[in-house]
Specification:
Layout lengths: L4 H7 L17 H10 L16 H14 L1 H21 L2 H14 L3 E4 L15 E5 L2 E9 L9 E8 L9 E7 L5 E6 L11 E10 L11 H13 L1 H22 L1 E2 L2 E2 L4 H30 L7 H25 L14 H10 L7 H16 L7 H7 L23 H24 L7 H29 L3
Parallel strand pairs: 1-4, 2-4
Antiparallel strand pairs: 2-3, 3-7, 4-5, 6-7, 8-9
Helix pairs in contact: 3-4, 3-7, 4-6, 6-9, 7-8, 7-9, 8-9, 8-13, 8-14, 9-10, 9-11, 9-13, 11-13, 13-14
Bound molecules: flavin-adenine dinucleotide.
The site of flavin-adenine dinucleotide (FAD) has 25 residues, from strand 1, helix 11 and helix 13.
Length: about 475
């Protein structure tokens, strides 16, 4: 992966968290200080504040962390993008100064608190409420599953404005300093994976002064997405780094594990599994290339939702699928921690989190299908295929869908069909990204063709499922 002196200086620490030896335990304060001193915040700090403001470097840093440990990479996404970058983008001058000083002088750590135990990703039902009190806001409610639930020094909290409905700008975004009190961890969780990070339930009765309210207002839920879009893009970095590792590990395992045929890799079906892992990796390489290209051609401020949603769903599905193929190849030893010959159990448990967190893939597939239909208009186009052929995000892939033109001659409607159409769109988006990636010097034509076939096959499977899904649902 392309290195710069800055990346070398930061990334040399990542091997300390490698899956080979780091299987348990939250990241320590001392280690966090070491990583901050090495420069992990630099890529999101603006040049005017003596930072590097370099999102390509940030993407490469996250990819390299994900190669060693997805929890480490997630720690960087939360602290740099979800917290620090949003404060730099939407904070008042006084807030930015305060946060920047804490990040650099005290190796500060920030988290984001959106999701609640009772309402989950149904954000409209959010129960945490902010009410004006003196020169600030009183925020009361409950949040859970926050990365760094017990250890973050800062929180970006979403809350509903008391007494205001959504169309009047119902949501507010507040930055709370943990040391000020009122953000209490009522319970800690024992997560299945991502052991580098601590999780739990947080109860809020906190006071936030006016200057710590973010300058981000509008109708509500779209603003919450504005906070998250840069993170969704970084799933390409997670997938790129993680799946490069999965591929290396699985090829090594299959080449060294004896069986009656010689070694596992001499078995045709094993090679098919390895090919699937390679395809998942190549898809994420193409998505990563798309993201890097985006940063070269756009200011980081462009927060377009549809491509970011496609990247999130596609990359996390690939991460889980690639890790599961690897685990199966590792046999029973893939089903336990601390095996000397593989890292599959940790890898699968970590990868699984990403199809759920940051809005579950099922829900995001529904949203992105709706985005697509709204943005590219139903008018004038009579079928989904017609829309795919005309949208700039998908038209490059249309030729690969010729064999399915009959099956795609429908217009998505209703939850079931919309979710499945969203899944199809993410695969089509990936084909378009692969097509774009194929013209680069680093791309291997054979790997690209196999990855495109993988996506087409997934589309065919979803279309097949679509035709029977209603019948299966009728059992309930
Ligand atoms: C490891 C980890 C880290 C996290 N970090 C943070 C964090 O830092 N900050 C934070 O605020 N939150 C965080 N979360 C919370 C996370 O974002 C939520 O768990 C996630 O958005 C899903 O919400 P939920 O669990 O309530 O699921 P729900 O919203 O209840 O959804 C559950 C399932 O129901 C189905 N479903 C629901 N609605 C629909 C629909 N309309 N159409 C089709 N299917 C549907 C889907 O299968 C979905 O997976 C984290 C979670 C995890 C696991």
């Amino acid at each position: 992966m392309k290195q710069t002196p800055f990346l070398e200086q930061v990334c040399e620490h990542f091997s300390a968290f490698d899956y080979r030896h780091y299987t348990q335990g939250n990241i320590s304060k001392a280690w966090w200080e070491k990583l901050v001193t090495a420069g992990i915040y630099q890529p999101v700090i603006r040049r005017s504040d003596d930072g590097r403001e370099n999102y390509e470097e940030l993407s490469r840093m996250i990819a390299q962390a994900a190669y060693h440990n997805l929890g480490l990479a997630m720690s960087f996404i939360v602290s740099t993008l979800l917290f620090a970058d949003n404060v730099m983008e939407y904070g008042t001058e006084a807030l930015k100064k305060e946060v920047l000083a804490d990040l650099s002088d005290h190796a500060g750590l920030g988290g984001i608190a959106i999701i609640e135990p009772e309402v989950g990703s149904g954000l409209r039902l959010m129960q945490t409420v902010a009410e004006k009190e003196g020169d600030g806001f009183r925020i009361k409610g409950k949040k859970h599953w926050q990365c760094f639930s017990t250890s973050a020094g800062w929180w970006l909290v979403t809350a509903k404005n008391k007494g205001q409905d959504e169309t009047a700008g119902a949501f507010g975004f507040y930055v709370h300093k943990s040391a000020a009190g009122g953000f209490r961890t009522a319970q800690t969780y024992q997560p299945k994976g991502l052991h580098v990070i601590d999780f739990g339930v947080n109860e809020l009765d906190a006071y936030v002064p006016d200057y710590r309210r973010l300058n981000l207002c509008g109708t509500g839920i779209p603003e919450i997405y504005q906070l998250i879009i840069p993170t969704w893009r970084q799933f390409a970095s997670l997938g790129n780094g993680f799946l490069s590792r999965m591929y290396e590990e699985s090829v090594k395992f299959a080449s060294e594990r004896p069986c009656p045929a010689g070694y596992l890799k001499d078995i045709a079906f094993v090679r098919y599994r390895l090919g699937n892992i390679a395809a998942c990796r190549t898809i994420c390489q193409a998505l990563f290339h798309y993201v890097i290209d985006f940063f070269r051609n756009n200011e980081k401020g462009t927060r377009e939702i549809f491509p970011a949603q496609c990247i999130k769903v596609m990359a996390s599905d690939c991460m889980l699928s690639g890790a599961m193929h690897y685990q199966i190849l590792c046999g029973a030893n893939g089903y336990r921690y601390d095996a000397s010959d593989n890292i599959a159990a940790m890898a699968v448990n970590d990868a699984q989190a990403f199809v759920m967190l940051s809005i579950p893939n099922d829900v995001l597939s529904l949203y992105l299908a709706n985005e697509f239909l709204e943005k590219f208009g139903r008018e004038g186009h009579t079928t989904f295929r017609d829309l795919i052929t005309h949208s700039p995000f998908t038209q490059a892939a249309a030729a690969h869908l010729e064999p399915y033109k009959k099956e795609l001659a429908y217009m998505p409607a209703g939850n079931l069909e919309l979710v499945m159409s969203g899944q199809i769109l993410t695969r089509i988006f990936a084909i378009a990204a692969l097509d774009q990636y194929s013209s680069t010097a680093e791309a291997d034509p054979e790997s690209i063709s196999a990855a495109i076939l993988y996506c087409v096959n997934e589309i065919a499977t979803i279309l097949g499922n679509k035709s029977i899904a209603q019948q299966i649902s009728n059992v309930i």
